[in-house]
UniProtKB/TrEMBL annotation:
Record keyword NADP present: yes
Catalytic reactions on record: L-aspartate 4-semialdehyde + phosphate + NADP(+) = 4-phospho-L-aspartate + NADPH + H(+)
Protein name: Aspartate-semialdehyde dehydrogenase
CDD domains assigned to the protein according to its UniProt record, in alphabetical order: ASADH_C_bac_euk_like (cd18131), VcASADH2_like_N (cd02316)
Record keywords: Amino-acid biosynthesis, Diaminopimelate biosynthesis, Lysine biosynthesis, Methionine biosynthesis, NADP, Oxidoreductase, Threonine biosynthesis
Domain Semialdehyde dehydrogenase NAD-binding: 4-119
Oligomer and partners: Homodimer.
InterPro entries cross-referenced by the UniProt entry: Asp_semialdehyde_DH_beta, NAD(P)-bd_dom_sf, Semialdehyde_DH_NAD-bd, Semialdhyde_DH_dimer_dom
Record-stated family: Belongs to the aspartate-semialdehyde dehydrogenase family.
Gene Ontology biological process terms from the UniProt entry: diaminopimelate biosynthetic process; isoleucine biosynthetic process; lysine biosynthetic process via diaminopimelate; methionine biosynthetic process; threonine biosynthetic process
UniProt lineage: Bacteria, Pseudomonadati, Planctomycetota, Planctomycetia, Planctomycetales
PANTHER family: ASPARTATE-SEMIALDEHYDE DEHYDROGENASE (PTHR46278:SF2), DEHYDROGENASE, PUTATIVE-RELATED (PTHR46278)
Highest taxon of the lineage: Bacteria
Location of the active site: 128 (acyl-thioester intermediate), 241 (proton acceptor)
């Protein structure tokens, strides 16, 4: 039982889901504090039968807190989370800022929980598009060693926060009404469109989102030899990221073996009966904690590759 748990970024898209899950799972803590930027401080949020006033996130706000769960922009995490560590808090961070830091544990509980147990500072949670892919890769990697992955993502607007979802709805309405809408979260209209840029462009023509898929995958699986070729696309779906994943393994895997490996792994659900038109889609995966896999098939162009479709609730 924790004495005090603080949720930083409590008013954001992921912060709201964190609160829902803490409430649903009756997370064992005596007291919850909700922290956010000065702009959101003073808001009142109903949580577990009481009304809590949101406090401003400051360097001095962590006194007496045992656990901080943070989902803030990167620059906020960079600035404030070291103060939480110094104040003696355990810190779980959803932002991208600390993930690749050598002293930070990058953890998916189903895959490397031991890294969290031995962490002395921040425990980081991976990027959402990486998380679902790595959960799907883990059983294949354990059985046949993953050498190379080619992945294309179809990412929901909720990945860009509450403003992303607001943009999708308002932009779609505007397009249907032939009026204009000034997008805030996206560089181009997302309504009736697909945008091949998530994050900013970095080295070799890859975006920051794509580089996360390369480097975070290696850190979580503890294998720097895994090659990943990602392309990340924003599509006009409100929630749940989808991915086509092509995996080359050291030992060839049959489709039957891959299916069995997926089915035996905690938190993967196989939905794969093409004859019945059964496969994962955002509309049926929304709100679930599971990673859904379907369309599992041989890559006809390569004996060591299988290919599949993967959908998960990114929030
Ligand atoms: C996105 N994966 O979908 C990012 C959020 N971390 O934009």
């Amino acid at each position: 039982m924790f004495n005090t748990v603080a949720v930083a970024g409590a008013t954001g898209a992921v912060g709201r889901i964190i609160l829902q899950l803490l409430e649903q799972r009756r997370f064992p803590a005596q007291k919850f504090r909700l922290l956010a930027s000065a702009r959101s401080a003073g808001q009142q949020i109903d949580f577990a039968g009481s009304r809590i006033t949101v406090e401003e996130l400051t360097h001095d706000c962590f006194h007496g807190v045992d656990l901080v769960i943070a989902s803030t922009p990167d620059e906020t995490a960079a600035e404030f989370l070291p103060s939480a560590v110094r104040a003696g808090c355990r810190v779980i961070d959803e932002s991208g800022y600390w993930r690749m830091h050598p002293d930070v544990a990058l953890v998916i509980p189903e895959i490397n929980p031991q890294a969290a147990l031995s962490a002395t500072g921040i425990i980081a949670s991976p990027n959402c598009s990486t998380t679902q892919m790595v959960v799907a890769l883990k059983p294949l990697h354990d059985a046949a060693r993953v050498r190379r992955v080619v992945v294309s993502t179809y990412q929901a607007t909720s990945g860009a926060g509450l403003q992303g979802t607001a943009d999708l709805l308002a932009g779609t309405r505007a397009a249907l009404n032939s009026t204009t809408y000034d997008y805030k979260a996206f560089r181009y209209p997302i309504a009736f469109n697909a945008i091949p840029q998530i994050g900013s462009f970095k080295q070799d023509g890859y975006t920051s989102e794509e580089l996360k898929m390369i480097f975070e995958t290696r850190k979580i699986l503890g294998d720097d030899s895994i090659q990943v070729c990602p392309t990340c696309i924003r599509i006009p779906v409100s929630n749940c990221h989808s991915e086509t994943i092509n995996v080359e393994t050291e030992r060839p895997l049959s489709v039957a073996e891959a299916r069995q490996l997926f089915e035996s792994f905690p938190d993967i659900k196989v939905l794969d009966d093409p004859n019945l038109g059964q496969y994962p889609m955002p509309s049926i995966c929304d709100g679930s904690d599971d990673v859904f896999v379907g369309r599992i098939r041989r890559d006809l162009s390569h004996p060591n590759c299988i290919t599949f479709w993967c959908v998960s609730d990114n929030l």
